[in-house]
Automatic annotation (TrEMBL):
InterPro entries: BSH_CzcB-like, UPF0194_transport. PANTHER family: BLL5650 PROTEIN (PTHR32347:SF23), EFFLUX SYSTEM COMPONENT YKNX-RELATED (PTHR32347). Keywords: Coiled coil, Membrane, Transmembrane, Transmembrane helix. GO terms for cellular component: cell envelope. The chain crosses the membrane at residues 10-27. This is HlyD family efflux transporter periplasmic adaptor subunit. It is found in: Cell envelope. Residues 46-234 form the CzcB-like barrel-sandwich hybrid domain. Residues 179-206 form a coiled coil.
Length: 321
């Protein structure tokens, strides 16, 4: 009877050992990783150069696609556009007169006027160019402000554009010998106007997507050159959960696998979209017992559209291997 009681005491002990071992193994197989949310960043660059006259966005501003990011001074370009519009109106008037049969004398007068305008434009351009050259020298010596230099630059650009416009007017006046050639000139001018309008549109930089302004390189009043980035926008519609997986488990994960990412009691199904090919040590702020002091690879999981996590926020993922 005593032996039986002893055996009964051994059975619970064995169960405890088995359960403890199971919990230990389960805990080892379910590894927790901490990661951070990142967003696809879109750089908003300018295709033109000039002075920024408007920049309504700040760091952290949420923008919608099509919102104004910045406006660059286009005074000289607008003037040239208006001059070309006037040229087209004159061409249309000349065409109408040719069709009425009174074009020859009108054409001669047009050439005379156009030649006078062109000579005047050349003279003004030469003076404006020299003034800008002098202004550059004075600015280098610290004798004038940047605003004065910028105004001289705008005047020089405007004068150069006027030369181009008046030369086009002169060429058109000289070739206005028939209704057919005049119509061709009108078609050419309309094409030039469309091209200039497309260029003018580039002086207003619009947001390419919905998102948050993450970096800002320029402010209102700054001069910017073509090809430079004004702001970086973290897109709303493409966010990733980034964590570091030990290389030992690399064969256990593959593209398009779905895992649950959790934060603040919410879970999101995320899809593996990026597996780095180079290993590194896990950044200190993302280390857990699962990847601390171990060679790891960066993994990116695409979060769903309804995910409320913001770039920079942390979340966790548990993997069972």
């Amino acid at each position: 009877m005593k032996i039986l009681k002893h055996k009964n005491k051994m059975i619970p002990l064995a169960l405890i050992v088995i359960v403890s071992l199971g919990i230990f193994l389960y805990g080892n197989n379910n590894q927790k990783y901490i990661g951070v949310v990142e967003a696809t960043t879109i750089s908003q660059t300018t295709e033109v150069s000039g002075k920024i006259i408007e920049m309504p966005v700040e760091l952290g501003t949420h923008v919608s696609k099509g919102d104004v990011i910045a406006k660059i001074d286009s005074t000289a370009q607008e003037y040239s556009y208006e001059q070309l519009q006037l040229t087209m109106e004159k061409e249309k008037t000349a065409l109408a007169e040719l069709k009425l049969g009174s074009g020859e004398s009108q054409a001669e007068n047009s050439v005379t006027v156009a030649e006078s305008n062109y000579r005047s434009a050349l003279s003004s351009n030469e003076k404006a160019s020299q003034d800008y050259h002098n202004a550059q020298s004075l600015y280098d010596q610290g004798a004038i402000s940047k605003d004065v230099l910028d105004k001289a630059k705008v005047t020089a650009d405007s004068a150069a554009n006027t030369v181009t416009a008046t030369k086009a007017q002169l060429d058109n006046a000289r070739s206005n010998s028939s209704a057919e050639s005049t119509q061709l000139d009108i078609d050419k001018t309309e094409s030039q106007l469309r091209e200039m309008k497309e260029d003018l549109d580039k002086y207003t930089i619009l947001a390419a997507c919905n998102g948050v302004v993450m970096s800002k390189s320029y402010d209102k009043g700054d001069m910017v050159s073509s090809g430079y980035s004004l702001v970086d926008i973290a897109a709303d519609d493409e966010k990733y959960f980034v964590f570091y997986l030990p290389v030992d488990y690399l064969n256990e994960i593959e593209y398009d696998q779905v895992f649950q990412v959790k934060s603040n009691g919410k879970a999101y199904d995320a899809i593996v979209k990026y597996i780095d090919v180079e290993s590194e040590y896990t950044p200190k702020d993302l280390q857990t017992a699962a990847n601390k002091d171990r060679e790891s690879v960066k993994i990116k999981l695409l979060l769903p559209d309804n995910c409320t996590l913001k770039p920079g926020e942390e979340a966790e993922i548990k993997l069972k291997f």
